[in-house]
Design brief:
Elements (H helix, E strand, L loop, with lengths): L9 H5 L24 H7 L2 H8 L1 H20 L1 H5 L3 E3 L2 H20 L5 E2 L8 E2 L7 H4 L3 H7 L1 H27 L3 H14 L1 H6 L4 H4 L4 H8 L7 H16 L3 H21 L4 H32 L34 H6 L12 H13 L4 H16 L4 E4 L2 E6 L2 H4 L14 H19 L25 H6 L12 H19 L9 E3 L5 H4 L12 E4 L10 H8 L12 E5 L2 E6 L5 H12 L7 H13 L2 E6 L5 H12 L3 E3 L2 E5 L1 H4 L2
Parallel strand pairs: 7-10
Antiparallel strand pairs: 1-6, 2-3, 4-5, 8-9, 10-12, 11-12
């Protein structure tokens, strides 16, 4: 989130000096390298091999950082890689995204419409564009899915999302804000592996795919005023791809950019006149490009078959407790289950668990660097979205306070009316990451030669270039007397601040994602034996069919077998009925589905009469069923007994109970 820049006169004043170093990237001529003055060392440094190694040190260090990010992401997902018979605690969400990835691969191989599928929710189908279909992963990773299965693709997507987000922020901080590699490494690690990101990684793939966010920010807040058309088109392409990764992240980015821009304009109004034309031009061209590319996908999302209006839940019901900001998340090495469970809606929404030390550290940074317009704008963003995450009514330690939440003021506004308040702290994550990077760059500033005295701090940039105000501010040279100050005088400050940052971040180090065992895909389904019973145009009905927490078994079987069969029901958002577009979870309930779900939940076998049997046949005809299959269920015996009473005795075939219902429904 670099700032807009400086007024027109800056370029002419900056022509005095063009070699003043910036934070983390001092030039060789200005670096106080006394060893280079020694004859032997000087001759070694002039050797071609040594010179090439020295010049390539930057790319090598960047490569090491990327590999480190991948290693951390691999550590976070290690239990899922090692134990392929387990899933995260948000197993329904993991099943959903595995199915979406398998469906994208199917769309590639069969040349099908990627926005719609009839392989689920038979006979109506699912509007995939209106759900989190993550086509930005599913289409390019289709070869991985076809070769190794949906589970491998899902885990790879999680690793790429976490490591990619950390790397993208590292590059943004080191290149655009020029905080130096150390500051960029710390800020990038926090942006990629903050408690909120790890919490979302338990099941919300679309929320952790944020690696395009820094690139979008770099284009939106580019301080250069030339090549408006090219950068505007690039912005439109980036936004388009982000839509196919996760629209909710894009909505949050728009909100954050808008508030940051207002805050920066208020903090540095003199920049507006010079930068506004190019800024608005890029936004306009980007919006036009995105509109052309997204016209059909968005039409299909909002008006295509299976579209819906509204959400099947009240977003305001997903709010955070004020105490959550000072507590450790359960996925952190210092976290535990009891307290986070009281302070957040569920384990996937622990987005605000930053801990008290980090909150205090951020307050210190803001006060310390308050003179910088970027810091003031960032502080505004962080505070506003943190407050909005508290919802309509503020809670503290699980107790409702007599304090209305500011979210009430914006709850009915467009975009905000569909946003989940508990996810607003995800905007605070990059805010904190940037503040940490800026503070580390500040304490590790190198002294500059006295020749830089005549150059104003914010104007020390090459002549003829438009340098961002943020980057110039971060890379500001020290006063002239700092060059004569002994290095040891700064060492305690650096050590103390580094220790404070480590102490604040250490409790937030993520633990490997927690997992739980899941019922395996029955051999009857996995081996394809079901094909002998299901003719074309008919469905395999899993038990329970369309409702309840365990109704995703069919979706899970479908994903793990590459969408080999068609099934009713599933875990998605669709319309409540043919004439009711109100959004609801899954397909409209059928009486038999409700009956079987109740048995699976309670373990009680109901009285079955002729009316229930006739209704079961009617429902099976609606689903175009050929067979009913029961795999592993926690209360499987009562469910089997109920099905025996409804459909007649079932047969156990290769680890599954199977009821061939073709004689009942015809065909």
């Amino acid at each position: 989130m670099s700032g807009p820049g400086r007024p027109d006169g800056a370029a002419s004043r900056s022509a005095v000096a063009t070699d003043v170093p910036t934070a983390g990237h001092p030039s060789d001529s200005d670096r106080p390298d006394r060893l280079r003055r020694l004859p032997l060392v000087g001759r070694l440094c002039r050797l071609p091999l040594v010179d090439r190694l020295r010049r390539r040190r930057g790319p090598l260090l960047d490569t090491v950082v990327v590999l480190f990010h991948l290693a951390v992401a691999g550590y976070v997902t290690a239990e899922l890689w090692r134990h392929r018979d387990r899933m995260t605690y948000a197993d329904n969400d993991m099943m959903l995204f595995e199915w979406m990835l398998a469906r994208a691969a199917r769309a590639v191989t069969e040349l099908e419409n990627p926005f719609y599928s009839t392989a689920l929710n038979a006979p109506d189908g699912v509007n995939l564009m209106a759900n989190t279909s993550v086509l930005g992963f599913g289409l390019p990773l289709a070869p991985v899915t076809l070769l190794f299965g949906s589970q491998t693709t899902y885990l790879l997507a999680v690793v790429l999302s976490l490591a990619g987000t950390a790397t993208a922020w590292y590059l943004f901080l080191s290149r655009r804000l020029r905080t130096g590699r150390v500051g960029a490494l710390v800020g990038g690690l926090f942006c990629g592996f903050a408690p909120g990101m790890i919490s979302q990684a338990t099941g919300h793939l679309h929320m952790i795919a944020q690696f395009l966010v820094p690139a979008i920010l770099a284009v939106v807040f580019d301080p250069r005023t030339d090549r408006v058309l090219r950068r505007g088109v690039l912005l439109g392409l980036l936004v388009t791809y982000q839509v196919f990764l996760g629209e909710e992240v894009l909505v949050f980015l728009v909100l954050a950019c808008g508030l940051f821009t207002l805050g920066h304009v208020a903090a540095a109004p003199r920049d507006v006149r010079r930068l506004a034309p190019a800024f608005l031009g890029r936004l306009g061209i980007g919006a036009l490009t995105g509109s052309v590319l997204l016209a059909y996908p968005l039409w299909f999302q909002f008006f295509g078959p299976g579209h819906y209006r509204g959400l099947p839940f009240d977003p305001a019901g997903y709010a955070l407790d004020l105490e959550s900001f000072t507590t450790s998340a359960r996925q952190s090495i210092t976290g535990f289950d009891s307290v986070p469970g009281l302070l957040s809606p569920n384990p996937t929404e622990e987005n605000s668990f930053f801990g008290l030390p980090l909150i205090v550290l951020c307050v210190v940074i803001v006060i310390w660097q308050w003179r910088r317009s970027m810091v003031r704008a960032l502080a505004l963003c962080g505070v506003v979205f943190a407050i909005l995450s508290l919802g309509r009514d503020v809670r503290l330690g699980g107790q409702l306070l007599d304090v209305p939440g500011p979210y009430r003021l914006v709850a009915e506004l467009p975009l905000l009316d569909l946003a989940v308040p508990a996810r607003f702290p995800l905007i605070c994550v990059p805010v904190i990451g940037i503040l940490l990077a800026v503070s580390i760059a500040e304490v590790h500033r190198r002294p500059v030669p006295a020749a830089a005295e005549a150059v104003p701090a914010t104007d020390a940039v090459p002549a003829g270039t438009d340098q961002p105000d943020v980057a110039a501010d971060v890379g500001r040279p020290e006063p002239a007397d700092a060059a004569d100050r002994p290095v040891r005088e700064r060492t305690p400050v650096r050590l103390l601040w580094t220790g404070a940052v480590v102490a604040a971040l250490l409790p937030l180090v993520p633990a490997p994602l927690r997992t739980k065992p899941v019922w395996p895909v029955p051999e009857f389904v996995a081996s394809g034996q079901w094909r002998a019973y299901v003719p074309p145009g008919r469905t395999l009905v899993p038990v329970p069919p369309t409702t309840g927490g365990e109704a995703t078994a069919g979706m899970y079987w479908s994903a793990r077998t590459g969408l080999a069969f068609t099934a009713p029901g599933g875990y998605f958002i669709g319309p409540a009925g043919p004439d009711d577009p109100q959004g609801r979870w899954g397909s409209p309930d059928r009486p038999t589905a409700v009956l079987l779900d109740r048995v699976a939940f309670t373990g009680e076998v109901p009285v079955i009469g002729d009316a229930e049997r006739r209704q079961a046949v009617e429902d099976l005809r609606h689903w175009r069923a050929a067979i009913v299959v029961q795999g592993g269920l926690h209360r499987g015996a009562p469910v089997k007994e109920t099905l025996d009473r409804l459909l007649g005795p079932g047969r156990e075939i290769s680890g599954a109970w199977v009821w061939d219902v073709r004689p009942l429904v015809g065909g």
